[in-house]
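Deliverable D2.4 — example input (structure tokens):
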């Protein structure tokens, strides 16, 4: 492992079952700004096969030919989900590969993509209630309170799985290069005590009551699993992990 990378969750770009009709795909690293430097982050997407047989894809990773071949055996890709305004970069490429799919925008993502000069067209907006196209399979709402970013959170009913992007990050220190290990711990997103990174938590200052209401709603789902976009995800004990990861809300 080089001094400037995070060890990946191999095998990459291949389907890994979570439960019936839900899979994850671990992708390559992306570099995200944190405290004036760029840290390599492992990435992860979630795929749900809906009751209709159509595929719902949360925060798509890079679409390799091998991954596309695997996905095409599951069903038809119909929904491409940007859960927040910093999770969207691969949606344009997926939309080209699957022109029948709807690209769903999270709050603020259109402006963010324009600022970053990333070409992506969104066809519809995610709301506080699930679309009728997946309401039988997934619940959702917009987690509010941050001055920087709202995130749309999802709950897969049949597998009791909460699907998050950045509201919890859980990097395993032994998978992080020594150059960045201290920074991950400073940010408060080192496993086993992963949570939202410090810079994101600070954007809730003065608005925590709104976030507490959102947390209460997530806890009512009583998730068994929590899939995260970055770091080790939680298989089992999901509700307890939610209580732990959001204790910063007081």
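Example output (designed residues):
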């Amino acid at each position: 492992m080089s001094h400037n990378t995070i060890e990946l969750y191999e095998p990459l770009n291949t389907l890994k079952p979570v439960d019936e009709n839900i899979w994850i795909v671990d992708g390559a690293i992306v570099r995200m700004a944190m405290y004036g430097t760029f840290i390599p982050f492992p990435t992860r997407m979630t795929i749900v096969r809906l009751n209709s047989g159509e595929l719902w894809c949360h925060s798509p990773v890079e679409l390799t030919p091998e991954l596309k071949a695997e996905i095409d055996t599951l069903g038809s890709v119909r929904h491409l989900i940007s859960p927040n305004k910093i999770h969207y970069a691969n949606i344009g490429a997926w939309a080209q590969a699957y022109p029948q799919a709807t690209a769903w925008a999270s709050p603020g993502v259109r402006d963010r993509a324009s600022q970053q000069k990333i070409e992506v067209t969104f066809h519809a907006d995610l709301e506080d209630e699930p679309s009728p196209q997946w309401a039988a399979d997934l619940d959702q709402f917009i987690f509010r309170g941050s001055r920087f970013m709202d995130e749309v959170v999802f709950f897969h009913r049949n597998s009791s799985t909460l699907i998050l992007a950045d509201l919890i990050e859980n990097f395993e220190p032994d998978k992080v290069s020594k150059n960045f290990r201290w920074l991950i711990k400073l940010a408060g997103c080192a496993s086993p005590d992963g949570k939202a990174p410090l810079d994101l938590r600070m954007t809730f200052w003065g608005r925590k009551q709104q976030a507490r209401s959102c947390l209460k709603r997530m806890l009512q789902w009583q998730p068994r699993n929590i899939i995260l976009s970055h770091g080790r995800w939680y298989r089992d004990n999901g509700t307890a992990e939610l209580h732990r990861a959001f204790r910063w809300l007081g």
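DSSP finds seven helices and eleven strands in the chain.
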